[in-house]
Write a structure and sequence with these properties.
Elements: H1 2-40, E1 45-51, E2 53-55, E3 61-76, E4 81-86, E5 93-94, E6 99-103, H2 106-135, H3 140-165, E7 168-170, E8 175-180, E9 187-188, E10 193-209, H4 211-214, E11 222-227, E12 230-242, E13 252-259, E14 271-276, E15 284-288, E16 300-305, E17 308-313, E18 315-320, E19 323-328, E20 335-339, E21 350-352
Parallel strand pairs: 1-21
Antiparallel strand pairs: 1-20, 2-15, 3-10, 3-14, 4-6, 4-9, 5-8, 6-7, 8-10, 10-13, 11-12, 11-14, 12-13, 15-19, 16-17, 18-19
Helix pairs in contact: 2-3
Family: Belongs to the membrane fusion protein (MFP) (TC 8.A.1) family.
Coiled coil: 112-163
Transmembrane segments: 6-23
């Protein structure tokens, strides 16, 4: 037993000695590495830089959207009755004012005749009251009441004639019948959908532009339009609307009016691309977006002065992709720090690296 205990103690001592030796070697190695790092470390912060230069800002951009019909409405019935005639079908082109259907006007004609008869009776009664008023047979109040009856009767005549004329249902716009909701013999009432008419002579391409793009657009600007369906053809559009308020995605809706060709090849719902070819801009000083400390809104950059970082307030202008126009605060040829600003304050020693 004593021999076994002695062996165990010897093993434990050897293990502890081995551990101590490993730890001592690691300590020496770390001290050596630390010495090397300390020897090469001058206290300067590593940064990336770029020289501020003058160039033209390319503001051209393109935006995708969907074509919408210039006018798209559903024609509804204004009177009750049975459809006696339909003169157009789906796909037919109609002109504004063209009769597209007719509703049985027998009851409407009866109402118009009755209203006319009531009006004539009211006129005769008024004449009798006015004659009696001269002899003192009726009062002025009674005469005024009869005159009111005449005006009301005339209004009913005009309403009845309007309803009778509405028996002929006419197209309110020119366009193509996209849908027909009725059949001959159908009974309709006010509000019943009859036809959907779509005007494709002009289309609206609806796109969006961000805040840096929309400031360069104005209503009336010409825009080049392309479509994947007709890659060999090019259409011309004109900006007809720019939203004064951004949507939930902070983009501004823009509508472009596009004249369709004679064959109405472009259809509502197709995809289109608006190519905004903006005028050539004057040369300006630009820097990368990353040159700003925090964000462009901070108006702050760091300029390299020898081996020292100097804080500089600048006035940013337009943003074109990853570059920002500088209006004031920076001269061409100055070196701007583009990376590592998080560790910088005014006067920090830096070392430019690639």
């Amino acid at each position: 037993m004593k021999k076994r205990s002695i062996i165990t103690v010897i093993v434990v001592v050897l293990v502890l000695a081995l551990i101590a030796w490993v730890l001592q070697n690691n300590k020496k190695s770390n001290q050596a590495k630390t010495a090397v790092v300390a020897e090469g470390n001058t206290g300067a912060v590593a940064v990336k830089t770029e020289t501020a230069k003058t160039g033209t800002v390319d503001l051209d951009f393109s935006a995708n959207g969907n074509f919408a019909a210039n006018q798209d409405l559903t024609l509804s019935a204004e009177n009750s009755g049975r459809v006696t005639r339909i003169t157009v079908d789906e796909g037919d082109h109609v002109q504004r004012g063209q009769v597209v259907a007719r509703i049985d006007d027998e009851l409407l004609s009866v109402e118009a005749q009755a209203a006319q008869a009531n009006y004539q009776n009211a006129v005769r009664d008024l004449e009798r009251y006015e004659s009696s008023f001269k002899t003192g047979g009726v009062t002025q109040q009674q005469v005024d009441a009869m005159r009111l009856n005449v005006r009301n009767a005339l209004a009913r005549v005009q309403t009845a004639k309007r309803k009778s004329n509405d028996a002929d249902i006419k197209a309110p716009i020119s366009g193509i019948v996209n849908k027909r909701f009725i059949e001959k013999g159908s009974f309709v009432s006010p509000g019943t959908q009859l036809f959907e008419i779509v005007d494709l002579s002009k289309l609206k391409l609806k796109v969006t532009a961000n805040e840096t793009q929309v400031v360069n657009l104005k209503v009336g600007d010409r825009v080049k339009i392309t479509s994947k369906v007709f890659p060999e053809k090019e259409f011309t559009g004109k900006i007809s609307f720019i939203a004064p308020k951004a949507d939930n995605s902070l983009n501004f809706p823009v509508e472009i009016e596009v004249s369709n060709n004679s064959g109405n090849e472009l259809k509502a719902g197709m995809y289109g691309t608006a190519v905004f070819d903006l005028p050539q801009q004057r040369p300006v000083i630009t820097v990368p977006r990353t040159a700003f400390a925090g964000s462009v809104n901070s108006n702050k950059v760091f300029v390299l002065d020898g081996s020292t970082a100097r804080s500089r307030n600048v006035t940013p202008g337009r943003i074109a992709g990853e570059r920002v126009e500088i209006l004031e605060g920076l001269k061409e040829g100055e070196t701007v720090i583009t990376s590592g600003q998080v560790n910088l304050t005014d006067g920090t020693q830096v070392q430019a690296v690639k």
